[in-house]
Amino acid sequence: MIEPSLALYGDAFDQVETQVEDLLAATGVRYCLLVDRKGFVLSHKEALWAPRPPALDSVATLVASNAAATAALANMLGERTFSEQIHQGEQGAIYVESVGDVALLTLIFDSSVPLGRVKLHAKKTITVLSEIMRTLKEAPPIKFDADFGSNAVSMLDDLLG
Amino acid sequence: MSTINFAAREINCKIVYYGPGMSGKTTNLKQVFAKVPGHLRGEMVSLATEDERTLFFDFLPLDLGSVQGFKTRFHLYTVPGQVFYNASRKLILRGVDGIVFVADSAPNRLRANAESMRNLRENLLEHGIDVKEVPMILQINKRDLDGALSTEMIRAVIDPKHELQWHEAVADQGRGVFETLKTVSRLVLERLAKGQ
């Protein structure tokens, strides 16, 4: 299809979760997400003290769409990409940086958190995540059971009539 | 291809509603949002202009339930139909797993339908894929209009070889909306089951 497929499982998933959790602790941000380029959440951690996050599906979709639009703008200006995005408000900020061509690391934090600290730790984490994502591309194709199709149709009947 | 998170046991699929401006793409999503129980859907996000024309996209996440232990989630998107927003349409098509082409039955929109389908083919080709590779459903909307074009005429310009499954709809009354969604969802999941 248009985007490379991502099949996150086993050790790779555990490693991603650990990296995201470590980054959350090191930076002091509220929420830390790894989002694929299609706008799906691959991993998400939030600080114990953080209030309930906004709808993560919506956050991920807007982050991915914003990154896609920014990349298109970069191409029009002769750049391969603009790798990072920072949006700063009065109370908080969001920092987004590419993890290779497949994912986006997203950190949402209060304005009291130094941006420099966020960027420093995020870039270290991205180096590790990029390597994990590289191995994901070499994952074997996934096979579902023979009943998967019929089970899916039954589920659709239940939900959509 | 869908995003599969084996550890979290999730399958995520992206469905895009495509078609000419004002054909009823956003209306389809609004009907789904209104009628699906709240615990099965997320917030609907609309990036629209002040006069409620889609500027970038509408977005609605849907939890379909579990299939063989996998939580199955569909993300529904619309594209902006107006001709000059083509850059946005290309972006929304990235990673698409299934397409609903919403055609307009209004008598003066035959050409707009045909041009939108041609635009879809071109945009997919720019991503390196043939339109036949993507599960697609044709929804012929606004069947309640006076002087509505015949379905044969619309199919003749959009799908002359009659390769697409199709549904008639009056989306603003909810007619045909769920039938369309169900058909495209089934095609996407069947394709997934085949490992394509």
Structure at a glance:
Chain A is an alpha+beta fold and 161 residues long. Chain A is built from 4 helices and 6 strands.
Structural commentary:
The complex is a heterodimer of chains A (161) and B (196). In chain A, 34% of the residues are buried. Chain A has 161 residues and is of the alpha+beta class. Chain A has helices spanning 10-27, 56-76, 115-136, 148-160; strands at 7-8, 31-36, 41-46, 84-88, 92-99, 103-110. Chain A is globular and about 50 Å long. Chain A has one domain (10-160): Beta-Lactamase (2-Layer Sandwich), CATH 3.30.450. In chain A, strands 3-2-6-5-4 form a 5-stranded antiparallel β-sheet, with helices on both faces. With 196 residues, chain B is an alpha/beta fold. Chain B has a single domain, classed as P-loop containing nucleotide triphosphate hydrolases (Rossmann fold), CATH 3.40.50.300. Chain B has 5 helices and 8 strands. In chain B, strands 1, 2, 3, 4, 5, 6, 7 and 8 form an 8-stranded mixed β-sheet that branches. The longest helix of chain B has 17 residues, at 110-126. Chain B is globular and about 50 Å long. The chains are: A alpha+beta (161), B alpha/beta (196). At the A-B interface, strand 1, helix 1, helix 2 and helix 4 of A face strand 1, strand 4, strand 5, helix 2 and helix 5 of B. Strand 1 of chain A pairs parallel with strand 1 of chain B, so a sheet runs across the interface. Chain B: Keywords: GTP-binding, Nucleotide-binding.
Topology:
The complex is a heterodimer of chains A (161) and B (196).
Chain A: E1 7-8, H1 10-27, E2 31-36, E3 41-46, H2 56-76, E4 84-88, E5 92-99, E6 103-110, H3 115-136, H4 148-160
Antiparallel strand pairs in A: 2-3, 2-6, 4-5, 5-6
Helix pairs in contact in A: 1-3
Chain B: E1 3-5, E2 10-18, H1 25-35, E3 45-48, E4 54-67, E5 70-78, H2 86-93, E6 98-104, H3 110-126, E7 136-141, H4 151-158, E8 165-168, H5 177-193
Parallel strand pairs in B: 2-5, 2-6, 6-7, 7-8
Antiparallel strand pairs in B: 1-2, 3-4, 4-5
Helix pairs in contact in B: 2-3, 3-4
